Amino acid sequence: MGGSVPRQRESVGANDRRDGPPQARSAPVGGSVPRQRESVGATFTWPVRVYWEDTDAGGIVFYANYLKFFERARTEWLRSLGLAQQRLREQGTGQFVVTHTDVRYHRPARLDDLLLVTACLLEAGRASLTIEQSVMLQPSHGEEVDRGSRLLCEGRIRVGWVDPLQLRPRRIPADLLALLGSSG
Q1: pLDDT of residue 92
Q2: Is the dihedral of CA 15, 30, 162, 2 positive or negative?
Q3: Where do the domains of the chain lie, and which CATH numbers do they carry?
Q4: Which residue in 155, 178, 139, 161 sits closest to 65, CA to CA?
Q5: Do residues 138 and 149 touch, judged by C-beta distance below 8 A?
Q6: Does the annotation count 102 as an active-site position?
Q7: 36: alpha, beta or left, given left = phi > 0 and alpha = psi -120 to 50?
Q8: What does the pLDDT look like over 121-172, one tens digit per residue?
Q9: 56, 102, 146, 163: which is the annotated catalytic residue?
Q10: pTM exceeding 0.85
């Protein structure tokens, strides 16, 4: 659809930045861990520190900034798979745009908190992806805290694949879908 021709994995926006892809770390920070719920892929986790710029006057993270944290985790997840979004756009292959968000806030994050932001592909359609995301408080060294007490925010984000010039929906290339689905 839209003249899209499947390409080899190396050509699908492979990241050729001089600093290379993020270094491998032990899961869950900066890597993938198996999901317990049904999903297409594994859960990718990215650390984020809360700075003054993320907070309101009371030192609590402004609600809209959780969407920025989600975006960072999705971008780093794609980068960890060798997909540079800028390159995909420049090649004319396509680009992802957010089409829907459903976010629930549980507890506030505060200045200097270390957060773990996750991204997990739940559903892959022909022209869109549904990604489950969460923001959790990183426990202090040696502290044991269950997921429920450290879950701050969770959401489902739907992204559509569009032509980069006309911004009209387009089918996600088959090789890109296969790569995303094999990320677990």
Answers
A1: 86
A2: positive
A3: 32-136+150-181 (3.10.129.10)
A4: 155
A5: no
A6: no
A7: alpha
A8: 999 999 999 999 999 999 877 666 666 569 999 999 999 999 999 999 999 9
A9: 56
A10: no
